[in-house]
Amino acid sequence: MQPFDLLASLPAIAAAVGLTITSIVVLALDMFLKESQRRNIAFVTAAGMFLTAGMMLAFWMPTAATEGLYWGGMVRFDMLATMFCVIALLGGGITALITIDVDKLGRSGEYYLIITVSTLGACLVSSASDLIMVFLGLETMTIPLYVLAAFRRDDKKSAESGMKYFLFGSFASAILLYGLSLIYGFTGSTNLYTIAEYMGSDAFTVNLVPVLVAITLIVVGFGFKISAAPFHFWTPDVYEGAPTPVTAFLSVVSKAASFALLVRFALTAFPPALAINGAEVQLFWTNLAAVLAVVSMIVGNLIALAQKNIKRMLAYSSIAQAGYTLIGVAALAADGREQAVAGISYYMLMYMFTNLLAFGVVILYSNATGKDDIRDFAGLSRRSPWMAIAMTIALLSLAGVPPGAGFLGKFFLFQAAVLSNLTWLALFGILMSLVALYYYLIVIKYMYVDKGEDEEQAIPVSGTYRWTLAVVTIVVILLGSFAVQPIFNWAMEGAQTLFASL
Amino acid sequence: MFCIGTYGVLARRNAVAILMSVELMLSAVNINLLAFWRYTAPENMAGQAFAAFVFVVAAAEAAVGLAIIISVYRSRRSVIVEDVNLLKG
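Output (structure tokens, whole complex):
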């Protein structure tokens, strides 16, 4: 056993430490601030998260010398973890900022506290390298989300969405956990690296079938968390019923963290070379992922066509986005695997900004008018041209049209699929993106062509929203143009170090 | 036990009963973990620690779940899942 070195171990949980401090500060402020000043807690939360993310990037970047397993093998400190921690932190911070003027949420300290704790769970998930940590991180992330979905106690829809999310979510966790317990039983260890080592050795005598059963259970559990079809039933109801900022948070942070975990789990516990009784286990993973990708893309895109409520439409669109990202997971088994890991990281980064931008506009709109049907967006371009432009960029980016970041995100994923000899899957993804373009364009048509009811009344936009949405819009465009090279190369480096450690 | 729990979640209509079924599934996981720990790696405490964590998290989950169910019950006077159908589509 190595001697414990606190200073060397701290960077591995820098995000968790930063978020714990933030949550304590938020809790204290909630007690001491007057009702009229509580709005400022949003700034404190966002500042805490951005500061943590900035410090991680500036001082605690993992290098070849420092990366590895820390805290008794519980967490792994590497580029992939850092990248997904930063995604979660930025997502949480932006969510806090776009909640600030929302009725009943913006002024309650406990809301920001729960957001912070959930982000903490997401950070733990993205660096977890032990079954215990995997489970704890996932639950730290999701239990606060149940509370958040049901946060508006006076609103029937919110309570109902909370209950649905809770019932589906806890069921999924139980299934996932059963899969994890089986894996533990086969190998007698909870560390992902030890598990892989043991399964690759001759001492491993378990039959192939039980291992595949365990993998299937785990994939079903993850399928719920990333809202991939056919495990998507909760998604539209929860997205529609939950308060909009919560929907925004849930759609990006928990999805990004679950994908980070899925990639890490698929690659470390079942590395590419691992074969049990001559059968390559990883092919089973990736084939499952390919099936889920196809089903999610079909279900998400086709049902989204028929939606009238913008939040429901975005829910089905997020199922479809999970499908595109799963193409990357399916490409993990062959030559395109480095490209695939980098592609998934990039896609989640750009998806976080893009989706938060779209939801930010929806929040502003429904806050001012109390409506959230697609039809209600009619004439927005004449009411508030800047909001319409921001929404257009977000939707085009989700659809994968340049200059939005979504184009390059999809490009990298499909490229990885082609490199891994999954050209049919890439072509299918492209076909489905065309279908998706239709329902995104319908919203744009309503905003620009159709006549609204009270067009001369501009929507009031407070300074915080103006700045946040402007910055996020610029980031989305930058990610689709100039910033893509450094970020993608960074993600690629992360992918390479991950494979080097296997 | 896991199968009984799964059946319960899928077949029950009462939210509290579904919660109980989920708890049953978690107990199945715990028994699994402890049995495996005892027979495969008793020198390594990881399995026992895992089971302890499952207990703790299950308790937290049940607390949050019951709170949500109570808030639904207050607004609609029912915990039958099929009656809770405001969101559809």
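The two ends of chain B are 34 Å apart (CA to CA).
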